[in-house]
């Protein structure tokens, strides 16, 4: 039989936000049901004044739901696998939630409401940590649409996360209500009712539980004089709707539906999903012969697949790091050359150093063209299959002043000039953002997953020579890992220092052109405002961005420009003195680093800034939809590593480590 484990968090009192009345009672009631009526193997409860949580080793863990306590628990308890794939891990949260930049956050009691991205707990981070337990089945119960005192529908719970079942307390644009007469939130009260139903009407599956809540919660609100509140359920993949939540209450038809899903998964060679479904059936009925045969059949298929693939198509980045005994952050796809060799990798063929004279265009402070210059660059070509190639400029390395000069608008604290120069080692960087043609070519040559599955066609604007976009930091690092496996060279995302060094190409002004920007030099929004356009049909145009107003379409004394409203091919505008195209505008570009509040915290040697407790990663360069001030060499932004950002706006360009070549 499978095991069930749960984490229950309930927060009434907040340090910096209006308190709630019944969130803690909700969590306590759910925890009581899990531990007593449902017989869960382990239940962890977080609430103010709750007793400490016993750790497997060392001191007990604090249970007050602060940012540090919650992050530490998720890190320590789920660092090692302790469950089986057929087991279930449940996460219940009652409290405030907030949606920021299309990312859901759960708000701990000490959250800073003005800085949710750095003081909230990303829902994706919760899921990623829970999956480390070894359980394939993650169920989120989020009564977290309680934003600023009321339970606001713009809170957390609307984000779809693949491989996860999420039940959220209300739909978009609705409020979630607490019922004084019941001493519970309407959603949790309905949820407790549903979980305790026995017999033919039981809510043993995701679908039946969803159907019950869709009817019952609005009814509860009507009975107690509250407006409509409609829970919503996300199940990714769709077969999760047949998932059996409570095996003891399952019916024969529930098992039959799961069997159909398992057989269908096998027919499309999705053996991992099929294995998970067969194990789930066996957990409900240990004597089921179809499940036993299915598990055996799927296991043989997976072993046959493994035999056909050499080690470098299946090895994980963590295994490379472990075998090598060290190196830089493996989450970013970095390992030293010795790490690659230690795993038996073959040394790649030395690249051919090529040279080219590039025409460098510049303008004056008003945007008027100045005499052109010719600069000699060195680069090499990485052939990717028959039809794609990547050109990489060879940069010499050295010291440079990193950050915005004094008086450079908008003069944000996070961008201010470092107290000491930054030094970078020689490296190679792609002359363009990764194109859709390159993205597909790498996946054609290396379809096997290194660390995560990625879409073959994620981009919103289609075209072989357009940049691949709407990709997350995790997607970008997976691409780099696959490119490394194909070529035998070490590809990764650039550190933030490497990116700015490459962008500036020796300049110290706002842009490498250098003092201003015109729409003949870059693709940006030159008609005024901080951001222009839509994202997934939603209007996102705004004069403000990150607390700063950007009313003008031009930068400083430069002219206003146009607005194309889309990406352009990756070589559409003039290169800089290093031969790199479109470092300003077109698409934001992922960097390896975690977000740092200021540049002085970055390592002096140009390495990546890596810090625990946050999944925010750095973006550089601006995009087609952003004001020119947001496309400067020193402009910085950040985004959670698992998200792909606004539609059509985020891409990347890889770096190749030279290792003495």
TrEMBL record:
Residues 4-241 form the Peptidase C14 caspase domain. One of its GO terms (molecular function) is formylglycine-generating oxidase activity. This is Uncharacterized protein. It comes from Rhizobium grahamii CCGE 502. Residues 392-654 form the Sulfatase-modifying factor enzyme-like domain. One of its GO terms (biological process) is proteolysis. PANTHER family: FORMYLGLYCINE-GENERATING ENZYME, SULFATASE MODIFYING FACTOR 1, 2. InterPro entries: Caspase-like_dom_sf, CTDL_fold, Pept_C14_caspase, Sulfatase_Mod_Factor_Kinase, SUMF_dom, SUMF_sf. Signal peptide: none annotated. Keywords: Plasmid.
């Amino acid at each position: 039989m499978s095991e069930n484990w749960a984490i229950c968090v309930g927060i009434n009192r907040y340090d910096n936000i209006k308190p709630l009345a019944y969130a803690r009672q909700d969590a306590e009631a759910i925890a009581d049901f899990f531990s007593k009526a449902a017989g869960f193997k382990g239940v962890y409860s977080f609430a103010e004044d709750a007793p400490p949580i016993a750790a497997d080793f060392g001191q007990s863990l604090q249970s007050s739901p602060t940012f540090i306590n919650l992050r530490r628990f998720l890190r320590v308890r789920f660092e090692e696998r302790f469950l089986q794939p057929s087991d279930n891990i449940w996460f219940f949260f009652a409290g405030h939630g907030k949606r920021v930049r299309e990312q859901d956050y759960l708000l701990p009691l000490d959250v800073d409401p003005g800085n949710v991205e750095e003081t909230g707990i990303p829902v994706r981070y919760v899921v990623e940590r829970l999956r480390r337990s070894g359980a394939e089945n993650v169920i989120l119960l989020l009564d977290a649409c309680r934003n600023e005192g009321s339970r606001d529908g713009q809170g957390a719970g609307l984000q779809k996360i693949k491989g996860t079942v999420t039940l959220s307390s209300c739909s978009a644009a609705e409020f979630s209500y607490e019922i004084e007469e019941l001493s519970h939130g309407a959603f949790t009260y309905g949820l407790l009712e549903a979980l305790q139903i026995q017999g033919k009407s039981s809510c043993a599956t995701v679908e039946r539980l969803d159907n019950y809540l869709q009817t019952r919660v609005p009814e509860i609100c009507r009975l107690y004089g509250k407006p409509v509140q409609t829970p919503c359920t996300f199940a990714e993949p769709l077969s999760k709707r047949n998932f059996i939540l409570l095996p003891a209450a399952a019916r024969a038809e529930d098992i039959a539906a799961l069997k159909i899903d398992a057989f269908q998964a096998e027919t499309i060679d999705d053996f991992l999903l099929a294995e998970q479904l067969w194990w789930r059936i066996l957990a409900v009925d240990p004597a089921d012969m179809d499940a036993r045969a299915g598990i055996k059949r799927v296991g043989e298929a997976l072993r046959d697949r493994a035999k056909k693939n050499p080690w470098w198509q299946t090895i994980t980045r963590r295994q490379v790091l472990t075998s090598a005994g060290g190196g830089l952050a493996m989450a970013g796809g970095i390992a030293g050359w010795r790490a690659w060799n230690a795993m038996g990798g073959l040394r790649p063929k030395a690249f051919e150093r090529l040279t080219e004279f590039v025409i460098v265009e510049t303008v004056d402070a008003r945007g008027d063209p100045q005499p052109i210059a010719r600069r000699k660059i060195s680069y090499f070509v990485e052939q990717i299959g028959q039809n794609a190639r990547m050109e990489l400029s060879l940069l010499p390395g050295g010291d440079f002043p990193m950050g915005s000069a004094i008086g450079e608008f908008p003069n944000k604290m996070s961008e201010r000039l470092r107290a000491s120069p930054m030094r970078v080692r020689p490296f190679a960087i792609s002359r363009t953002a990764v194109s859709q043609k390159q993205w597909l070519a790498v996946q054609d040559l290396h379809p096997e997953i290194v660390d995560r599955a990625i879409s073959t066609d994620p981009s919103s604007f289609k075209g072989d020579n357009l940049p691949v976009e709407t990709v997350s930091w995790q997607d970008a690092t997976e691409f780099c890992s696959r490119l490394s496996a194909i070529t035998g060279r070490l590809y990764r995302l650039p550190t933030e220092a490497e990116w700015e060094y490459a962008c500036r190409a020796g300049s110290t002004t706002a842009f490498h052109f250098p003092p201003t920007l015109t729409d003949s030099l870059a693709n940006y929004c030159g008609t005024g405002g901080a951001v222009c356009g839509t994202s997934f049909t939603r209007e996102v145009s705004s004069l403000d961005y990150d607390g700063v107003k950007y009313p003008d379409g031009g930068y400083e004394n430069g002219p206003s420009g146009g607005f194309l409203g889309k990406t352009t091919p990756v070589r559409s505008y003039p290169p800089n003195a290093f031969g790199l195209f479109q470092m300003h505008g077109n698409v934001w570009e992922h960097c390896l680093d975690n977000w740092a509040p200021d540049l002085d915290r970055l390592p002096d040697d140009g390495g990546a800034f890596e810090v625990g407790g946050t999944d925010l990663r750095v973006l550089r360069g601006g995009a087609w939809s952003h004001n020119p001030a947001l496309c400067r060499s020193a402009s910085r932004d950040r985004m959670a590593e698992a998200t792909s950002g606004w539609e059509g706006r985020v891409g990347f360009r890889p770096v190749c480590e030279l290792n003495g070549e």
